[in-house]
Design goal:
The protein has about 375 residues and is α/β, with parallel strands linked by helices. Helices cover about 50% and strands about 15% of the residues. The strands form three sheets. Strands 4-3-5-6-7 form a five-stranded parallel beta sheet, sandwiched between helices. A five-stranded parallel beta sheet has the order 9-8-10-11-12, with helices on both faces. Strands 1-2 form a two-stranded antiparallel sheet. It is globular.
């Protein structure tokens, strides 16, 4: 068994097992476990409106959920910073279903947002990594992430676990709302069941690639992370990981917003990390991909330094990017679970290059509870 130097790297490598544990909580064979989703009918708003409150990485999983719940279920979703929602006041009256997301279930801002929502009479769903946490106890209903105890401050396996639970929530809600049938759910669950093994097979290659790239880029002053649609939250998460783990400034933007200001920042000292994956079976994904190719072509003419995350064997992206890291093809709404992991590894190795205690970055704290 490998002896990991840091909890963060060990927890990155634990993600396939964490995803399997999470799937086992909610899925049996190719069907959603009925008992696991009991109580969700008490949460769902008749108006089809959902409000998500979270902070940090958990908010990025909320941004992912916004797109997945809208795409797969037809829900209207709004994502708030928990620290803002808890201070807003007002009388409520939106009749929204509220989701709060927190690794520990004890994050103070998110707990305050939960209590404010309860005060307004809104039904709440807590998604946490700790079954007995305060949020899990106080919410109308709760769903558990099966990541296991996470020690490093930068969230890795808890983040992909949150994505997994939110994707499964979307399947459950989509089935309940007749947006797809049980055969379609079974097909999606069959694909998800294969995902942990696919990730496991790619981890060592991603580690080697990101160790090499972090050494090459260790002196960069800042990074821009770009993604479209469901990949934009992963650009945000990649930038956050880099900031908190290595103290390197980074920002995540929607790819289409680059030319509306941020493009002025690009130089040899400010590389771009571009999420350029695609689901060729989905028309909207193909359309986003074509726009990404055009942007990559423009950046190449501009002389920008671009690191792309792309589908395995994608020669078009590879020809336009300075460096390309490949991930195996999965469907659009599962791609974020895969493509975030190389970005976690990049943040880890950048921290090592810059001499940072990656498990305990300065000025940051984490609520860690026995699970």
């Amino acid at each position: 068994m490998r002896d990991f130097s840091h909890a963060m790297l060990r927890e990155i490598y634990e993600q396939p097992q964490a995803l399997r544990r999470t799937l086992d909580l909610y899925v049996e064979g190719r069907q959603l476990r009925t008992a696991a989703w009991a109580g969700l009918d008490k949460w769902a708003s008749t108006d089809g409106e959902v409000l998500i409150a979270a902070s940090g990485s958990s908010r990025h999983s909320g941004l992912y959920a916004e797109i997945v719940l809208e795409d797969l279920c037809g829900l209207a979703v709004d994502v708030e910073y928990a620290s803002e929602l808890s201070c807003r006041g007002g009388s409520g009256g939106r009749n929204a279903s509220v989701i709060v997301i927190s690794q520990s279930g004890e994050t103070s801002d998110t707990l305050a947002a939960l209590r404010e929502s309860e005060r307004r009479g809104e039904k709440t769903l807590a998604i946490t990594n700790v079954a007995g946490s305060t949020m899990a106890r106080e919410a109308t209903v709760s769903l558990l992430v099966g990541a296991g105890r996470e020690l490093a401050i930068p969230a890795t396996k808890s983040f992909t676990g949150q994505l997994a639970v939110l994707y499964l929530l979307a399947l459950n809600e989509g089935l309940r709302r007749n947006h797809f049938n049980s055969a379609e759910v079974a097909e999606r669950l069959g694909e998800f069941d294969k995902l942990p093994a696919q990730i496991e097979a790619q981890l060592e290659g991603w580690e080697l690639s990101m160790a090499r790239l972090s050494h090459q880029l260790r002196s960069a002053a800042s990074f821009l992370f770009l993604g479209r649609g469901v990949h934009y939250p992963i650009a945000r998460e990649g930038a956050l990981k880099l900031k908190e783990a290595s103290y390197v400034h980074a920002e995540g933007y929607p790819s289409g917003e680059l030319k509306h200001g941020p493009n002025a920042l690009l130089s040899d000292d400010v590389p771009v990390v571009m999420l350029a994956t695609v689901d060729h079976g989905l028309e909207a994904s193909r359309a986003r991909y074509e726009k990404t190719l055009q942007l990559l072509a423009d950046l190449k003419v501009q002389g920008a330094k671009v690191i792309a995350i792309a589908n395995s064997g994608d020669n078009e992206v590879a020809a336009l990017a300075s460096e390309c890291v490949f991930v195996e093809q999965v469907s659009e709404h599962l791609l974020p679970v895969v493509e975030v992991i190389p970005l976690q590894l990049f943040a880890y190795f950048m921290a090592l290059e810059r001499g940072v205690n990656v498990d305990r970055p300065r000025n940051l704290a984490k609520a860690v509870i026995e699970v």
